[in-house]
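Could someone model adenosine monophosphate with this protein?
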Amino acid sequence: MPEAPNILSDSADCIDGIVVESNNKVLKFIEDVTAHADEVQRRVLSEILSRSANVEYLQRYGLNGCTDRETFKKVIPVVTYEDLKPDIERIANGDTSPILCSQPISEFLTSSGTSAGERKLMPTIEEELGRRSLLYSLLMPVMSQFLPGLDKGKGMYFLFVKSEAKTPGGLVARPVLTSYYRSSHFKNRPNDPYTNYTSPKETILCLDSYQSMYSQLLCGLFQNEDVVRVGAVFASGFIRAIQFLEKHWSLLCKDIRTGTIDSKITDPSAREAVMKILKPNPKLADFVEAECSKGSWKGIITRLWPETKYIDVIVTGTMSQYIPALDYYSNALPLVCTMYASSECYFGINLNPLCSPSEVSYTLIPNMAYFEFLPVTRKDELTGSISEPTALNDKEKQQLVDLVDVNLGQDYELVVTTYAGLYRYRVGDILRVSGFKNKAPQFNFICRKNVVLSIDSDKTDEVELQNAVKNAANQLLQYEASLVEYTSYADTSAIPGHYVLFWELSVKDSTLIAPSVFEDCCFTVEESLNSVYRQGRVCDKSIGPLEIRVVENGTFDMLMDFALSQGSSINQYKTPRCVKYAPIIELLNSRVISSYFSPKCPRWTAGHKQWCTQN
Ligand code: AMP
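Reply:
Sure, complex below.
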């Protein structure tokens, strides 16, 4: 994650504040807010509620200007995105009255979580940028406690912006990181040893993903000896960069040798910014060429960037599937997960960044938002599914606990109340309490509720998958065939990863079904999946074509036998709609009769279906 300079406010009510000069001040800030977590939380809630006393949403529930926790919890419901959708649509359509927040909504952040196949729209306000910068500014002082000298070199981070859209009411809608990189907080950040990147901002802000990646890699290779840390936001993004290098290293070497930039890079600002850095360097070109043309890419990161101390990428949650590839490319450099954040709110940081990926825990920073926690129980260890109360009954509501009251080892769903106008909003993440920093709990990220498949930032839930499979399987009926059972898995053994569906069929005469029928089924599934999936397929190319593997009859009975042999109860057994456990995947793969891939990309356009787009 990109760090911000060491700028820190002294309290939740003043983000643009005091400039703190030393790492020690940041560490003291962390000590203070975690030691007084409950007081900070009480103040944050009271601040949010007093500022929002006039907003329609709170008045609707009769909060009547109260700012105390007890009344708030009694009268304000715990909600999901679907509950807020009518209010959010009003804002998107141009209603500027204080519906959710008393401050003007500055833009919408388009979350990778979806609703009806489209990205969720999170309203945000200008001052949230300061809050995000505050969290970023904590990262390097924490990191520097464990690895000195990071201020002496550069970070090679592959950071990207995505296209924007405008709502009918004229507000910009874009992903949170695009919003941050385009903001003055990032673009005009003061010189700071911790925000010294190899990528000029113009290359990050270039919308064309090929040109952006090419320019960033060129600058990273050119400054290879200065690089002390490398990274991207998610592990999948970093691996995409290495894969890009595998494809384009000879062109990149040519540019390093001659000190020019390839003519495919046409973005004037990116070209100009790269040309300010690049000089002819035949020696470096020879070196990069020699390393890249060796048969194996094992350890390529440390070979090309020899001073690299760690890889800064999120490898928690579904991203853990990329750990083996990162270990291979880096000869097992430390993988560092620094922070936990979302479009709704930035949550917390990892205070022990050199721990192993399986032990990563995030300390929620108490002045980011008001946090509550809904206890959840694990239902099925084999499939990893979580029981999910849809609307909360009174008893469940009473189970919500405050930040400082969570229990060690217990799983909770995160519920936030933010400065930007979300009140008791269920984020959809399941967290497990792993310890405490002073009074503030630390959490392992367990999973995103309901998500069964994910390759990059896509999050496909069971219901979406079910509908998509149903749409596709309907096409088989005309061939007197039907789908008996199915399951899925995210295959990341090759990059980009892709969704795999295992289908068991009942077929009268299999010779009647041409391969193109199954290919059409693959395509129909893709067309039926949400916009984040389709964007990954079409625009970012971060997801490969979906595959259907037809398995022999009786395979799903074998799967059930296997689950029972592992202790599942026969009464409760349900076919898992997604499998992750290697022996199960092996079993399924051993029964594959034929496999088919989607022949083309599904449709995708920027913005919600009904909006005009702008770039
Ligand atoms: P978005 O709303 O698209 O920004 O996505 C935010 C979601 O990404 C969070 O709610 C989490 O589900 C996931 N996420 C963010 N940070 C992490 C992390 N450090 N580890 C695992 N998942 C994360």
